[in-house]
TrEMBL record:
It comes from the Bacteria. This is ABC transporter ATP-binding protein. SUPFAM superfamilies: P-loop containing nucleoside triphosphate hydrolases. The keyword Cell membrane applies. It comes from Rubrivivax rivuli. PROSITE patterns: ABC_TRANSPORTER_2 (PS50893). GO terms for molecular function: ATP binding; ATP hydrolysis activity; L-isoleucine transmembrane transporter activity; L-phenylalanine transmembrane transporter activity; L-valine transmembrane transporter activity. SMART domains: AAA. GO terms for cellular component: plasma membrane. Residues 7-240 form the ABC transporter domain. GO terms for biological process: D-alanine transmembrane transport; L-alanine transport; L-isoleucine import across plasma membrane; L-valine import across plasma membrane. InterPro entries: AAA+_ATPase, ABC_AA/LPS_Transport, ABC_transporter-like_ATP-bd, BCA_ABC_TP_C, P-loop_NTPase. Keywords: ATP-binding, Cell membrane, Membrane, Nucleotide-binding, Transport.
Amino acid sequence: MNHDIVLGATGITKHFGALQVLHGVDLHVRRGEALGVVGPNGAGKTTLFGVLAGTLPASHGRVHFDGRDISAWDTSERCRAGIGRTYQVPRPFLSMSVAENVLVAAQHGAGLRGAAAQAAVHSALDRTGLLPLAPRPADTLGLLDRKRLELARALATNPKVLLLDEIGGGLTEAELLKLVELVGSLHAEGLTLVWIEHVLHALLKVVGRLVCMDAGSVLAEGEPAAVMANPLVMKAYLGGAAA
Ligand SMILES: Nc1ncnc2c1ncn2[C@@H]1O[C@H](COP(=O)(O)OP(=O)(O)OP(=O)(O)O)[C@@H](O)[C@H]1O
């Protein structure tokens, strides 16, 4: 495997019963890059994230990470190896504080204990600007701070690659700019990102490469402007809008 590729999926298919939602997808993430993943609703983007993170077993195909075949690894092994993710629908423990939520991720996601767990929590809160809110109950946070918390929980697992699933949804334009700034700063620190996002103008401020999926296949990939101008991609989006 090419060592420039930190995370690679090859020939991934996924069936849910009789429904096939991924049809031989190849996805290769380069070390240090920010890769965007777009596509109409139901294209299979979140399912692909599940296969990468190990929450969903692939029906066929292999996943490699950092030079190793991790296809048989479960989600906690992959998390400890350095694959972090956020969820489309964040589910923080609402009665717990911001810091406690991040601590749970450091302990249960990354298996950290004691001073190492506390250091990971401090660093994640600091990087996401949540240190001043550390003692606040999670249910008192506004939407942007909940997104920051979702990021902090993923960062507390010390990821080498961070999978972001539609973290931009529902924010005002001003909030979105702050989120873009934060995600951009994580990438500037050297974190490899794969970001599924429907809010294209936000995504395009951060990513250097784009993959477009439709109906369980990769339609196009490459330089973002070229991908968005690809006739197949335009057709998929217009079809999605009309559906
Ligand atoms: N657990 C499941 N059981 C059955 N079908 C599923 C399951 N999860 C996803 N699907 C189906 O797989 C297809 C792909 O869904 P997926 O969520 O991966 O798409 P997506 O590209 O992430 O869409 P969106 O942009 O709307 O989040 C959809 O038809 C969806 O209904």
